[in-house]
Amino acid sequence: MTGTGEAVGFWILGTLMVVAALGLVFVRKAVHAALCMAFVMINLGVLYVMEQAEFLGIVQIFVYTGAVMMLFLFVLMLVGIDSSDSIVETIKGQRVAGYVLGLGLAVVMFLALGSITLPATKGLEAVNNPADGGGNISGVAFLVFGKYVWAFELTSALLITAAIGAMVLAHRQRLTEKLSQREWSQRRVRENTYVAGLPAPGVYARHNAVDTPALLPDGTPSELSVSRVLVSRDQVATPITFHAAEQAIEAEIEDGSAR
Amino acid sequence: MSLSHYIYLATILFSIGAVTVLLRRNAIIVFMGVELMLNATNLAFVTFARVHGTLDGQVIALFVMVVAAAEVVVGLAIIMAIFRARRSASVDSANLMKL
Fold first, then answer.
1. Looking at this predicted complex, what is its ipTM?
2. Which residues of A touch B70 (CB under 8 A)?
3. Given phi > 0 = left and psi -120 to 50 = alpha, else beta, which region is A213?
4. Interface mutation vs chain B, best among A13, A51, A90, A154, most B CBs within 10 Å
5. How far is B71 from chain A (nearest CA, A)?
6. Which residues are bridge partners to A215 per DSSP?
7. Which of A60, A84, A224, A236 could form an S-S bond across to A45 if both were Cys, CB 3.0 to 4.6 Å?
8. How many beta-carbon pairs below 8 A join chains A and B?
9. A67: which DSSP letter?
10. Is A199 exposed, middle or buried (0-12, 13-18, 19+ CB in 10 A)?
11. Tens digit of each residue's pLDDT (9 = 90 or more) over B60-87
């Protein structure tokens, strides 16, 4: 029914797609799942082109891998890249039940497909290469702006509603007025807390960056001087790494004064 | 190779998407499962268009893509709003209506 080239392409792409889609179920990190998904979508685009749906194939790659998956990755970065899935079951037996239901769904659909025979393939050669010289894109355009023009118009309403909805959902209303620098300083004095401001980070002689906590008079690092984001990521530098070097310098100075 | 192979592939992808929705706890991955199911149906649409020799199936697949894009935008905004309120993107943590 189809050419050998298409069969070879189908088996290669189909296998890769199923493996990548299974990654969606089994992979721990959300970013890896997103990459698996992007891979599946690119392969789907290629399959569409193989199935004589050139326009849809290109749109698939543009819209899905280009826009939708990037949106997914964007939200992943906002939500936190480390938010890996917990494997603790909250409902007893849910994992097993999920596998069974999924497998059952596949089996039911396979049986249903096995009991039917597709009509003889007509193929799209006739509609994709009509006598007037139009191609797949013109054919799709004739349908979108002809037979389905009402659905197309409704689509625009849907897209505008979705955009406005996303804006409303993502909007955060400021409950109080934003404080200016002057008001912050006045508030500090009035409340008598950190009147001189929080301690600034980075006062080591050898290292000067925001990941370096300020040292209190007794030598302990001040937690107030570093961002709590860095603390929770475990990216704060400690003075311990510099102790050896410091002792070497001190020993050298002592040596010099002894001479 | 007959065209029904494409339908079988769409079936497998749809089932994997359904299992993802059922099993994963991270709302974003659940959402990707929904996307996978939509894509699987698109593949079936395109294949049926080829079987019947008309472009209608391709046009419907195009509309499915548009609806999926709109759905992704709103869904991700909802996930963001939930994350902002509860500091978690897990579907288990949104249990405000639980007694």
1. 0.91
2. 158-159, 161-162
3. beta
4. A51
5. 7
6. A221
7. A60
8. 234
9. I
10. middle
11. 999 999 999 999 999 999 888 888 887 7
